[in-house]
């Protein structure tokens, strides 16, 4: 499944691939059962060409690593026919099942693989994912923790353990795991069957964790702590957005959206505490740079600019911001209202304009 913020393939292509995999998995289940000496619907085991297991496994792994799961599944079934104890084939076949929500079959294969090789990292990680998807967070957490004991730099395990901790409101532990995930994935490696490196996902989630904590601080009246947490969120998200821009992931927009939200929350907190409106303006202007297509940011920047205006030139700048907001969304009534108001201000004489601007600042 593609993550949010990434453009998905055309619907019919996805449906066609799904049908192929449904047929594949049904076939693979039959073949595995047949290999164990069973008789599925009265059929005999299929014939496998006399090719060596290493050769079959190489074919399967090549298809698997290219995300060609249909071909990979068929080859892994042939591997298991000749070598029923092959852990790689069992684990990767389990992932093919998991990718299509056949988790019972996946777990059966993983249980058998872990009997053969208790420390297999792919098996442990996949078992944790299945526990997570099936609403068993404690079991998932145990698997991630066990995996990290043997492989402390596994960014995927750190990331998912962080999400498990965050869901339990164990924020300090979650933050540490996200930081470790970022550190462990400094090269931003693209994970199998995904397009977003865990180092970037962890940056996004770390920013969200800080923002969530800032909301709790606000609810408790801890204004200074709330602001400090928003600043931490902004710093993390700025870095994550910059790292996204250094990759080919232009479609991964979630960090950008989250940063805009944090900047907006910070600006409103400054205003709520009667802070300097110049700081509010700087925050809204940063929002327009982060996401130039956000009409609300342009409107807010225009309103603050007009409020702070001292000369005609300031009102002209505010007018350009209102025009931008209106261009981005012609149905945005506040943008239109402010556009008209700024235009009318510019029709004043210099003396009348100075009095009008003075009145707005005093308000």
The main β sheet shows up as: none
Query: Mean of the pLDDT scores?
Result: 85
The CATH superfamily of the domain at 12-117 appears as: Tetratricopeptide repeat domain
Give the topology string: H per helix, E per strand. Answer: HHHHHHHHHHHHHHHHH
Describe the structure.
- The longest helix has 25 residues, at 11-35.
- The protein has 363 residues and is mostly helical.
- Mean pLDDT is 85; it is low at 1-23 and 29-48.
- The chain is elongated, with a radius of gyration of 28 Å.
- The protein has a domain at 12-117: Tetratricopeptide repeat domain (Serine Threonine Protein Phosphatase 5, Tetratricopeptide repeat), CATH 1.25.40.10.
- Helices cover 74% and strands 0% of the residues.
- It is built from 17 helices and no strands.
- The two termini are 52 Å apart.
- It has helices spanning 11-35, 53-65, 69-82, 87-99, 103-116, 121-133, 137-150, 155-167, 171-184, 198-219, 223-245, 254-272, 277-290, 295-308, 312-328, 333-345, 350-362.
Concise summary:
This protein is mainly α.
List the helices and strands and how they pair.
Layout: H1 11-35, H2 53-65, H3 69-82, H4 87-99, H5 103-116, H6 121-133, H7 137-150, H8 155-167, H9 171-184, H10 198-219, H11 223-245, H12 254-272, H13 277-290, H14 295-308, H15 312-328, H16 333-345, H17 350-362
Helix pairs in contact: 1-3, 2-3, 3-4, 4-5, 4-6, 5-6, 6-7, 7-8, 8-9, 8-10, 9-10, 10-11, 10-12, 11-12, 12-13, 13-14, 14-15, 14-16, 15-16
């Amino acid at each position: 499944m593609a993550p949010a913020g990434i453009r998905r393939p055309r619907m019919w292509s996805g449906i066609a691939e799904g049908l192929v995999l449904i047929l594949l998995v049904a076939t693979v289940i039959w073949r595995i059962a047949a290999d164990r000496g069973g008789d599925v619907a009265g059929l005999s085991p299929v014939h496998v060409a006399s090719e060596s297991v290493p050769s079959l496994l190489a074919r399967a792994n090549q298809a698997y690593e290219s995300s060609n799961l249909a071909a990979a599944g068929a080859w892994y079934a042939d591997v298991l026919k000749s070598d029923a104890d092959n852990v790689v084939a069992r684990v990767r076949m389990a992932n093919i099942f998991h990718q299509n929500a056949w988790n019972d079959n996946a777990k059966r294969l993983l249980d058998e693989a872990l009997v053969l090789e208790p420390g297999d990292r792919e098996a442990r990680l996949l078992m944790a994912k299945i526990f997570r998807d099936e609403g068993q967070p404690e079991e998932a957490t145990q698997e991630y923790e066990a995996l990290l004991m043997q492989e402390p730099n596994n960014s995927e395990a750190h990331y998912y353990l962080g999400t498990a901790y965050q869901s339990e409101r164990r924020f300090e532990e979650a933050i540490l795991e996200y930081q470790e995930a970022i550190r462990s994935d400094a090269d931003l490696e693209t994970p199998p069957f995904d397009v977003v490196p865990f180092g970037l996902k962890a940056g996004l989630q770390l920013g969200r964790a800080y923002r969530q904590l800032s909301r709790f601080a606000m609810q408790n009246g801890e204004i200074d702590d709330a602001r400090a947490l928003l600043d931490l969120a902004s710093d993390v998200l700025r870095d994550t957005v910059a790292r996204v821009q250094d990759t080919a992931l232009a479609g991964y927009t979630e960090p950008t959206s989250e940063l805009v939200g944090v900047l907006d929350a910070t600006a409103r907190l400054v205003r709520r505490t009667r802070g300097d409106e110049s700081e509010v303006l700087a925050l809204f202007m940063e929002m327009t740079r982060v996401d130039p297509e956000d009409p609300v940011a342009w409107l807010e920047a225009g309103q603050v600019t007009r409020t702070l205006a001292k000369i005609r030139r300031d009102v002209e700048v505010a007018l350009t911001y209102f025009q931008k907001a209106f261009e981005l969304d012609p149905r945005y009534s506040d943008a239109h209202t402010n556009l008209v108001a700024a235009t009318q201000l510019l029709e004043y004489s210099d003396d009348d304009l100075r009095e009008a601007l003075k009145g707005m600042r005093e308000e």
